[in-house]
Amino acid sequence: MKLLRNNLLNVTKFLPVQNPCRLVSKNCNAQAKNVEAASQKSLKVAIIGLPNAGKSTFINHLINRRICPTSCKVHTTRKANKAIYTTEQTQLVFCDTPGLVTENEIKKFKLESSFKSAYRQAVQHADLIAVIHDVSNAWTRKELPFAVVDILKTYPRLPSILIMNKIDALKSKRVTLELIRTLTNDTLLNERTNKKRNNAITKESIPLKKPVNDDREVSWSNFSRVFLVSAIIGSGLNDVHNYLIASAKPRRWEYTAENFSDETPENLIVDSVKARLLDYLPQEIPYNLETFLEYYSVENGTIYASVEVLCPTQRIERLICGESNGRLRQITERVTSDLIETFGKAISFTIATRSKETQKKISQ
To answer: Where is the signal peptide (predicted)?
Structure first.
């Protein structure tokens, strides 16, 4: 353990001490600490949608802190996580849910048994449902997923908003307007045709009409608002932020102003490693890896941590490490950068690998 700690100390000097992006959040939290309970407001938002629709990226960029793990592969989010954002007298609690899946996908990707029920539990405790819909996929963008419509029908009195993500993929205003009409049963109009620089579409802009796709179950007539965003570049997020703040209800906060997640720091670190392994490893290999926290401590404002990755075979272990451990160093650097964005502190971090084959030989 002493050797591990010394290695971590040596890595620290190469890392930035503070992420400038966190200064704003710290100032907001400092103001929020003095807010009296009587003036506090909060809003619980359930984020739902298909895998890789951009749910976690949307939350991270909206609150300007990396809480939810993200990657280029599906099923990065394996369980419902809460991201907590507190500013002045208002606290927003986002429940990032796993993507809506089928039984076959649960078996294929070795997902937890609670995977399918996670989003329903999140919705049951929410004040608002936010549907993240990927409009960059030409094959699926014209229909809301059946599972999404099913949830909305199950909780028809719960307010809901539609967030059309990756909107920068749509180059035509005509296509955008047609898509809005299709997904909302022509009950909403895009205010951008009348008000420039406004990315929100409201019910008040046009009287509700009779739904035209009732029999197909591919749309929803009762969205309160529709937002056009590109979460990855931050476009349109200010409108969503302001809407959620305005929708908050007068009540005491569920969490203190210092909290930004309901997960422990240890779990956040392990989840960050899993997410980057998904980015760097091909096909289904990363889904078969086991990740454990070996060491964690906080000293003088610096986080020291080490994670071990258990591989099924030595071949996969060599694949993770790469030539002269080059790939492993890249993964470690990316995770370190992610953790700095998460905690806003200096991070000293290492990743070790081990194979089950080697473990068996040692035990024999």
So the answer is: none
